[in-house]
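Data card: per-record layout.
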Amino acid sequence: MEIFWTGLHALRVRNPKLTGNSSLWMFPIYGSAAFLAPVMNHMKGKSVLRRGLVYMTCIFGGEYISGLLLKRRGMCPWDYSKSPLQCQGVIRLDYAPVWFLVGLFYERLLTR
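The structure for this 112-residue chain is written out next.
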């Protein structure tokens, strides 16, 4: 999903190759989404709004913690410090709707 996302951002700079990129650090970070499985089991039967908000919060938390740890070591592959709705350069609050939907997407993948 990240390659797709960064490839779409290439449209802004009119890069017709739509080149996307990532970092090897992202494998364990995205792999930690598997820890959402117990949360998802607990959320069964709750409203879509509640589930999406919980998943969004978990994703923000994971991104924040991993971003700070990597940033302290000079290894963070992303830097949101120039974005207006950022927090310590490691999360962007304007991504809330994206993480809401991604959480529901993970739910669908992991609960089959």
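Known properties of this structure: The first helix runs from residue 2 to 9. The chain has a mean pLDDT of 90.

See the next section for split statistics.
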